[in-house]
Prior knowledge:
TM7S3/TM198-like_dom, alpha+beta, 5-stranded mixed beta sheet, transmembrane, signal, disordered N terminus
Amino acid sequence: MGLLRLLVLAVLASEGSMMTGGAEAVGNSSKGFLEFSVGKFRYFELNRPFPEEAILRHISSNVTFLIFQIHSQYRNTTLSFSQTILPNTSGTGNDKGLVFILKPEQSMCTWYLETTDTEPVQNVAIPLSYSERDPIPGGCNLEFDLDIDPNIYLEYNFFETTIKFAPANLGYARGADPPPCDVGTGQDFRWRLQYDVYQYFLPENDLTEDGLLQHMQWMAQVPQVKASAVKVVTLTADDKTRVSFSSLWGQGVIYNVIVRDPLLNTSAAYVPAHTYACSFEAVEGNCASLGRVSTKVFFTLFAMLGLFICFFGHRFWKTELFFIGFIFMGFFVYILITRLTPVKYDVRLILTAVVGTIGGIFLVATWWRFGVLLLCMLCVGLVLGFLISSVTFFTPLGNIKVFRDDGVFWVTFSCITLLIPVIFMGCLRILNILSCGIVGSYAVVLAIDSYMYTSLSYITLNVLRRALHMDFHRAFTNVPFQNNDFIILAVWGMLAVSGITLQIRRERGRPFFPPHPYKRWKQERERRVTNILDPSYHIPPLRERLYGRLTQIKELFQEEQPAGERTPLLL
């Protein structure tokens, strides 16, 4: 029996050590409390009728304050200093934390956890300890309810995700008075503190609860945050504690802020916050859905036309002009409809398709009647230039501070767009084939985004958002670039190179562009009029032909004559 007991204990110990970040196993809820250890994550489940009491014992004497934080995926939990829930002593949400300032000789702390959700809520929590030299996150809070608020408050819409947090204060010893927040601005006050904002992307298409809680462990403590996440910006005490990011629908993102004291070379982490920029509980358009049906239909048809243009666009010149005119007119009309009218998304998409079709027909008709090649190629070059300019600002270049000014951004964007047709004005056929291959293959990328997440769709979507939303200029446009994106990027490159190569080889020795259609039709008509040997010369006029067709149709509905003897008329 003794050997069997040792084996069971060994198995339990090995299972506990395999949990990421030193996470502990789920506690026994029947006892009514959960016991925690400093720096150890713990998974547990909260139920509405059964609140829990969290206890931390054996706190070291060199610890001056604690941050206890709790995380869930999308159901709210409440964390409080007391059993009575008060606004200034509790917090409710998905990612919440409380700062506990320790008294002299104090070695134990308690918190109270509960949920009002009808369903059980899976959580992960951790207490973190800091010394008197470490800055206190949220120690100079004047905006939110808590006296000391280490939380990051997150808001999102279709365009941007904004995080806000309270300024930190300098650390101090147990039993001492906190340093004043707004008395002076010198190096002896909180104004010397700096704030590093970090961003961490979850794996693409991962909406699981276990995945979020596991990755949240890499964003709670300072060393793990610096090693795992990407630092986006550093704020000083003079800057507003507010940062905006481009919203990524259905993509899990975790944000955290590390406050640093450059004088003492110490730091502390706020409570991380996460978002998917969508709702898990919405009936329509929730995180689990893969997009609207109208979007899938629109971009699937658009991709089929784009794929045809990628390989055969230069040969079928009028079809390519329709494709370019559709893009040109549809893009501007969608912006106007969205900014000037409150119509729903599906109606906007239908109107965009209708007006885009009219724009494509108009460009084809303009070429047929007037045959102005430079005008048509200017439209083709502008579309290619728009895509290349969008790719340029999709890179880290787009997050440079100077481009946060809308005037600088749009002037630079327009110059890059115009530069492409100017460069290739001497070789229009090459410009046209490049446009067919690159733009046509990118239409396939947009269609793929309707069925599975890919960051490459934000190449053009970020430009569209900036044109639609007045405040999008302040958002950082970082996106994840993971395995799916590398595969789709390879597909895009393969399609573009294949289409360009095929069209260049096929068009060797052929005229650069087809002749003017209207002139050709006019010459053909004059030739038929003057050449009596041409069979088309003896074709009756259109009016007589239509009258003859109508006569034949009428005869189909006339009754047959009764059978009998018929005598031919002899002349």
